[in-house]
Amino acid sequence: MINRFARSLLLVGGLGVLSGCAATNAPTLSTSSVADTQEELTCGRITGRMKVWILSLRGEGARSGTSSLSKGLQYFGTGVGMTSGSAADPEGNRARRIARLESYNNKLKELGCKSYDLQAELQQTDMRVMPQPK
């Protein structure tokens, strides 16, 4: 029979593995840079990517914050190599994603395309309202 401590340790380890799986399979922004091939840098492609990313960030804001237990398990998982570092730092990850959006928005302006009002789009709470460049 497994003692109480061993069961607790197995439970925490198992939850850490599960949170690692969830964190690594979560949808994220593409890691491609703004300096993609010229073929990809069309107004339509950039606008489409940005629309999806804006909706993704809006969706994150609509979900409740991460619980203390979840953060602790993600931190534990990161320390032993079971999850990515971004899972333990959701605020930093969000800031990087917004910076990526701003970079693409600047590229739209350089190309003479319609661009987004990112501040207004990210403050929108109704998920039925599609982001629209202006």
Task: Walk me through this protein's architecture.
The protein is mostly helical. The protein has one domain (4-24, 37-123). It has helices at residues 4-25, 43-62, 68-79, 85-88, 90-110, 118-123. Helix 2 (43-62) runs antiparallel to helix 5. It is elongated.
Please mark out the parts with pLDDT under 50 across 5 or more consecutive residues, or reply none.
Answer: 15-27
Number of helices: 6
Strand content: under 5%
Order of helices and strands: HHHHHH
> How many E-type strands?
0
Radius of gyration: 19 Å
Structural class: mainly alpha
Summed over residues and divided by their number, the pLDDT gives a mean of 74
Q: What is the straight-line distance between the termini?
A: 66 Å
Instruction: Give the count of structural domains.
Output: 1
Largest sheet: none
Shape: elongated
Helix content: 55-70%
